[in-house]
Amino acid sequence: MAQAFMSQQDTIAVAMSGGVDSSAVAALLHAQGYPIVGLTLQLWNQRRLAANYATLGLPETVPQGRCCSIDDVYDARRVAEQLGIAYYLVNAQERFEAEVVRPFVDEYLAGRTPIPCTLCNNHLKFDQLLLTARQIGAERIATGHYARNYYDPERGRWILARPADTSKDQTYFLFGLTQMQLSRTLFPLGEMRKPEVRTMAADHGLALAQKPDSQEICFIPGGSYQSFLSAYLEEQGRDLPDTSGEVVNSSGQILGSHPGIHTFTVGQRKGLGVSSRDPLYVLRIHPDSHRVEVGTDQELLSNRLTANRLNWVSIPEPAIPIRVGIKIRHRHEPAPATLRVTAPDTIEAIFDEPQRAITPGQSAVFYQGDEVAGGGWILDQGPA
Question: Could you give the CA distance from residue 308 to residue 345 in angstroms, rounded to a whole number?
């Protein structure tokens, strides 16, 4: 349904990440006769903090599998040349640092666990891509995300929905898209499954048809958040704040001490610095007191959450409690819950069954069937 409004005269800017999905989108639209241009956002200098890692004696690796790498830019350009389309590399590093990296650092230092990929999609990628597309004469963009969108005239709204291949569902990262952004975005892979996409890429002669999917966050070598925080703050001339404190159980009993709240996340089991006969997990992080609360796996369960910084997608803000399924993690199956607005830009959700490791700083995305009703950022998790 999303492509029904397109004409063969429309120029489409394809967001080319250098991966198989976006490359397949470019090949598909080109083969269908649409005039297309390729756009790649340069987000982060992969070697920028190398000297700081060395100064601090921290291990730094540049493994394969990070998105938005120099190799990815090369692959995107090579596909554009193969297709014979115009290609633009857009330097968005300044915006990326201001809108993704710095908030990521500040959230971790405050004892929350942010999702940089969601921040990037919601606050940078689609906004910058659409802005650049219009500057070069394209009114719409196409991406390799696994999602579907279409206009519902009865509701007068653009709908964001889960894709046919739910194992590749990326709507969790897209809940912040506005109605304007959805109206100008195409998700050509929404009805396809990943094996089909690889076959299509191979059929179009793309050398990267079997390229592995990116697994790591682009600016964090080896997945070590703690090392990145230290190196970035050292580069910025900022000291790592002293948030050391006590490790306590749910009754407030002191079990030990810790070096800083930024070294923990809810649900964490290893590296707690305390010994116990039974496995212990991080239950809560208390930024004001610098206390890290730990407990059993059973204590990690909670049946409610609050979220703010909301975006309503397929429905307007509800005036009464509504039934939804809520994802609290990307790989989490939507859990049935009742949701109600409790204050401006704030909701409370009560789950039918307690959920494990509800984590402040992560996204809560609300689904009604396959549609994304909306979403927000987890502010707090309630008691079990």
Answer: 5
CATH architecture of 302-381: Beta Barrel (2.40)
Ranges of CATH 2.40.30.10 domains, the chain: 302-381
The Cα 376–Cα 175 span in angstroms is 8
Domain 243-296 sits in CATH at 2.30.30.280
pLDDT band, residue 62 (cuts 50/70/90): low
The candidate with the shortest Cα–Cα distance to 102, out of 266, 235, 286, is 235
Q: Which of 119, 148, 136, 106 is nearest to 313 (CA)?
A: 148
pLDDT band at 2; cut points 50, 70, 90: very low
Higher pLDDT among residues 212 and 296, named by residue: 296
pTM: 0.91
- Tell me where in the chain the CATH 2.30.30.280 domain(s) lie: 243-296
The percent helix, strand, coil of the chain (3-state, each to 5) is 30, 30, 40
Q: In this structure, which amino acid lies at residue 371?
A: E
Nearest to 47 by CA among 93, 79, 78, 88: 93
The single residue listed with the structure tokens 């909306």 is: 374
Tell me which residues are annotated as active site.
120, 218
